């Protein structure tokens, strides 16, 4: 074989190797990016939640709830995709001002009661708060009136104000009062930016 032919063969082989590596790399990147498409399709096929806003005739009064009496009326809960009822025939009244402890083993349905109150999943039967059936009003009207302190609280990356008032509904005085109630007023007051001070992920700088 002549030297020129050998050089051409070696050069072509090197180019082919590079193109093969590029093709494999592009294939892997394409497969990785398709994961995002699969997630979008998955979310697109999720069942839709009930309406966020109440119809005018069903919207509860602005001051609702005034007492906080909760009535469970033969309430059943079964998660989508499961044939097992997690909660069965819950029928009781929690009166205003009462402090109730719910005790049970893991998987007994304690967290499911919270899910039912917030309508994170639909139920059979009814739950009434101060006489208003939670299934009759929009999700926004319901969830804005309820509060929960979870075992693992979530702190967002953003300002102190955003974490306490993400919808910008309250005045600075209200925010400072809330911070004072949880004994964080002095700490936030020491920040140069005050309520605009940025909180890192999971609140690691608090």
Give an account of the 3D structure.
The chain folds into three domains: 1-46; 70-143, P-loop containing nucleotide triphosphate hydrolases (Rossmann fold, 3-Layer(aba) Sandwich); 158-203, no CATH class. It contains six helices and six strands; from the N terminus they run αββαββαβαααβ. It has helices at residues 3-44, 110-117, 139-143, 160-164, 172-181, 185-189; strands spanning 70-77, 87-94, 123-129, 132-133, 158-159, 198-199. The strands form two sheets. Strands 2-1-3-4 form a four-stranded antiparallel β-sheet, with helices on one face. Strand 3 (123-129) and strand 4 (132-133) form a beta hairpin. The model has no long low-confidence stretch (mean pLDDT 86).
Layout of secondary structure:
Blueprint (H helix, E strand, L loop, with lengths): L2 H42 L25 E8 L9 E8 L15 H8 L5 E7 L2 E2 L5 H5 L14 E2 H5 L7 H10 L3 H5 L8 E2 L7
Antiparallel strand pairs: 1-2, 1-3, 3-4, 5-6
Organism: Euroglyphus maynei (Mayne's house dust mite)
InterPro entries: ABC1_TM_sf, ABC_transporter-like_ATP-bd, ABC_transporter_C-like, P-loop_NTPase
Protein name: ABC transporter domain-containing protein
Which properties best describe this structure?
206 residues; 14% strand; alpha+beta; 4-stranded antiparallel beta sheet; 6 strands; Rossmann fold; 3 domains; two-stranded antiparallel sheet; extended
Largest sheet: 4 strands, antiparallel
Q: For the CA atoms, what is the radius of gyration?
A: 28 Å
Strand arrangement within the widest β-sheet reads 2-1-3-4
> What assembly state would you assign to the polypeptide chains in this entry?
single chain
Number of domains: 3
CATH class of the largest domain: Alpha Beta
Encode the helix/strand succession as letters: HEEHEEHEHHHE
CATH topology of the largest domain: Rossmann fold
Supply the helix-strand structural class: alpha+beta
Strand content: 5-15%
Q: Write down how many β-strands occur, each being a DSSP E stretch of 2 or more residues.
A: 6
GO molecular function: ATP binding; ATP hydrolysis activity; ATPase-coupled transmembrane transporter activity
InterPro entries: ABC1_TM_sf, ABC_transporter-like_ATP-bd, ABC_transporter_C-like, P-loop_NTPase
Pfam families: ABC_tran
Region (Disordered): 43-64
